[in-house]
């Protein structure tokens, strides 16, 4: 399978330091378009840190220093002429805890597109809100209560609302940081089905603690350990026939 | 009989431990009872002393209105009443005729304000009234021509050297004008400072330096702010002395640290996930802070500001320094006129020898405390109303 033409995100020799702590040791990784790439590994291995490098969320932490390149669509997002706000608009993010704004369901989705000037107030905005909520698979549950606060929904609905909010700004890539770890199995199943649906249009990168989840949804899986990318390959290869001993030990539950 | 054998839960040390727990509970309850009884005693005493001030004694007599009595107002009433009627009431006769022309050249039977000594006698307090006048009052009282009416003067007049003519209005208005200045200056400055310190600056030496200074500012004795106001606003900038403008600015300096500290606490209590969500959508810092963080922090910001406001309202010392302790009979109607504030007025009255001022002091405290309780209730209400449930 030749995927090189399909590369969406190319990470080259990425180092990250929290002050003096060297947290990521020269990561090289190509992430392909319209695929789900799962990042797995034990706690503290750097997978979430790595994910946050991809939309420059780590810039918010003052002690962080980053070296290397993250090339998205042929442009290094750490170049001086790239504004991190623009990066985050095109690389959306869904967090571990559902974190809707304390506003109405409608405003949760509409706020960012209005600010980015994607739509104007009125019919086109209504349309975008509806489209995003439909895409996120939560429309039927919320269509009659769009003016109610987003926080009034259940956890699973809130998380899908957050996904709707993310896709409403029309990103290319969606980063998900353990999006189902705070949810019950049924909500998790819905989110997973949603991811498989969304990968037709978006490139999805997901951090997960749940190896079954990686096995169920991911096309590619990367195994991180102590700041190193140990192994990165097609999901079935990682799970059935890993080349590295550490990967096999983790997959078979010898540690983690 | 031995507990240890038939009761597996028997523990001989428990009796003592339970006793200690009860003793400790007793101590805590005692301290609560103490503080509540102090409060009840204080409030009760204030109400007991202050309530009579809301009533004032009047006498029903004939008053003559004509050219002669307008020139010499003492002559408007019968000679025998001259020692019991209020000088202030007589002094206002020309004003009254001016307002009501039809009074001219008539003789009216009206309720006339009695002077404070007679009033104190009627309220059963210490008094200095001559026997002759006392007899007259007793006689009029028997005829039902002496009555206690609601003391409108207290709410419609400013301070006066004639006790029965003195009121709290100019102090109330002075307080309102002063606190308007305080809020206009301190609220935006305080909230903006808090936003900068909490959302924009990194935790470096500079920020720590500012933080230490703000905490120091909150601990400075308030009288020093008065000196600062005197030196800077009055001497340096030449602003009018005793004015609500200077008073308000001085109190704003005092209120700033309270608003900053409470606003910072409110901003810090906004979960970081909200900011992350905003940044994750490609929003700028201003959009995140203004539209998502600030609305969540707002109840806390409001509560802190109102508490700062009520503290400023009760502040006296710095205002004495800048001259807001002056004798202010007329209600100020601009920020630049000499004015006084409620606590300063109370301070002035508390130093007066006449008994009538004692009850006015207590009544003024009741007004001040009612406003403070009202403000604090508003703070609690706002917090409850706008608090976002998670």
How would you concisely characterize the structure shown here?
The complex is a heterodimer of chains A (256) and B (390). Chain A has 256 residues and is α/β, with parallel strands linked by helices.
Describe this structure in words.
The complex is a heterodimer of chains A (256) and B (390). Chain A is of the alpha/beta class and 256 residues long. Chain A has a domain at 34-45 and 85-251: P-loop containing nucleotide triphosphate hydrolases (Rossmann fold), CATH 3.40.50.300. Helices cover 36% and strands 26% of the residues of chain A. Chain A has helices at 47-53, 84-90, 105-116, 123-135, 139-142, 155-168, 185-198, 211-217, 235-240, 245-251, and strands at 7-18, 21-32, 36-40, 64-72, 75-76, 91-94, 173-177, 203-207, 220-225, 228-234. Chain A has a six-stranded mixed beta sheet with strand order 6-7-8-3-9-10, with helices on both faces. In chain A, strands 2-1-4-5 form a four-stranded antiparallel beta sheet, with helices on one face. In chain A, a hairpin with a 2-residue loop joins strand 9 and strand 10. In chain A, helix 3 packs across helix 4, helix 4 (123-135) packs across helix 6 (155-168) and helix 6 runs parallel beside helix 7. The longest helix of chain A has 14 residues, at 155-168. The mean pLDDT of chain A is 91. Chain B folds into two domains: 53-151, no CATH class; 169-386, MetI-like (MetI-like fold, Orthogonal Bundle). By secondary structure, chain B is mostly helical. Chain B has helices at 3-6, 14-50, 67-71, 87-91, 93-99, 116-122, 131-142, 153-156, 169-200, 205-219, 222-236, 244-268, 272-280, 285-313, 317-321, 342-350, 355-386, and strands at residues 55-65, 106-113, 146-150. The model of chain B has no long low-confidence stretch (mean pLDDT 90). Helices cover 65% and strands 6% of the residues of chain B. Chain B has a three-stranded antiparallel beta sheet. Chain B is built from 17 helices and three strands. The interface between A and B is medium-sized, with 29 and 22 residues.
């Amino acid at each position: 399978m030749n995927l090189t033409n399909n590369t969406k995100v190319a990470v080259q020799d990425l180092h990250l330091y929290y002050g003096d702590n060297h947290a990521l040791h020269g990561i090289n990784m190509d992430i392909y378009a319209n695929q789900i790439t799962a990042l797995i590994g034990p706690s503290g291995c750097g997978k979430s840190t790595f994910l946050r490098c991809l939309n420059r969320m780590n810039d918010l932490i003052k002690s962080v220093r980053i070296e290397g390149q993250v090339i998205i669509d042929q442009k290094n997002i750490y170049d001086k002429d790239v504004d991190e706000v623009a990066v985050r608009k095109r690389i959306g993010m869904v967090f571990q805890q559902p974190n809707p704004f304390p506003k109405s369901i409608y405003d949760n989705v509409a706020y960012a597109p209005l600010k980015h000037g994607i739509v104007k107030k009125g019919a086109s905005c209504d349309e975008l809100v509806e489209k995003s909520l439909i895409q996120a698979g939560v429309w039927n549950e919320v269509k009659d209560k769009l003016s109610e606060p987003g926080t009034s929904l259940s956890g699973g609905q809130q998380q899908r609302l957050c996904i709707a909010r993310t896709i409403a700004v029309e990103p290319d890539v969606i980063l998900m940081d353990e999006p189902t770890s705070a949810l019950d199995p049924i909500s998790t199943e819905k989110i997973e089905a949603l991811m498989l649906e969304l990968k037709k249009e978006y490139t999805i990168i997901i951090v997960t603690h749940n190896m079954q989840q990686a096995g169920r949804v991911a096309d590619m899986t990367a195994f991180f350990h102590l700041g190193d990318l140990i192994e990165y390959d097609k999901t079935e290869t990682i799970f059935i026939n890993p080349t590295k001993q550490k990967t096999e030990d983790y997959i078979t539950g010898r540690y983690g | 009989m031995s507990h240890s054998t038939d009761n597996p839960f028997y523990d001989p040390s428990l009796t003592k431990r339970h006793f200690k727990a009860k003793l400790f509970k007793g101590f805590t309850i005692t301290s609560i009872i103490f503080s509540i009884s102090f409060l009840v005693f204080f409030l009760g005493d204030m109400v007991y002393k202050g309530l009579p001030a809301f009533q004032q004694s009047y006498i029903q007599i004939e008053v003559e209105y004509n050219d002669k009595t307008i020139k010499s107002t003492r002559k408007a009433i019968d000679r025998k009443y001259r020692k019991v009627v209020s000088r202030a009431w007589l002094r206002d006769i020309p004003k009254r005729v001016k307002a009501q022309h039809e009074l001219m050249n008539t003789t009216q039977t009206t309720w006339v304000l009695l002077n404070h000594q007679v009033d104190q006698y009627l309220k059963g307090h210490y008094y200095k009234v001559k026997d002759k006048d006392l007899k007259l009052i007793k006689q009029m009282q028997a005829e039902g021509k002496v009555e206690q009416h609601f003391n409108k003067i207290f709410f419609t007049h400013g301070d006066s050297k004639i006790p029965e003519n003195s009121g709290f209005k100019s102090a109330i208005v002075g307080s309102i004008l002063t606190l308007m200045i305080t809020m206009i200056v301190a609220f935006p400055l305080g909230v903006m400072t808090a936003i900068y310190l909490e959302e924009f600056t990194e935790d470096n030496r500079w920020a720590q330096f500012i933080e230490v200074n703000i905490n120091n500012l909150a601990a400075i004795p308030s009288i020093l702010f008065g000196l600062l106001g005197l030196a800077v606003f009055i001497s340096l900038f030449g602003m009018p002395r005793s004015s609500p403008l200077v008073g308000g600015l001085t109190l704003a300096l005092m209120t700033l640290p309270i608003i900053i500290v409470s606003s910072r606490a409110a901003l810090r209590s906004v979960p970081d996930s909200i900011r992350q969500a905003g940044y994750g959508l490609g929003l700028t810092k201003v959009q995140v802070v203004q539209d998502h963080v600030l609305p969540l922090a707002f109840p806390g910001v409001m509560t802190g500001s109102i508490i700062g406001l009520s503290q400023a309202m009760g502040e006296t010392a710095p205002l004495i320094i800048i001259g807001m302790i002056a004798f202010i009979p007329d209600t100020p109607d601009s920020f630049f006129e000499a004015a006084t504030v409620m606590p300063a007025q109370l301070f002035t009255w508390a130093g007066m020898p006449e008994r009538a001022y004692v009850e006015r002091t207590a009544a003024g405290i009741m007004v001040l405390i009612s406003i403070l309780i009202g403000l604090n209730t508003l703070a609690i209400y706002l917090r409850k109303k706008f608090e976002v449930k998670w």
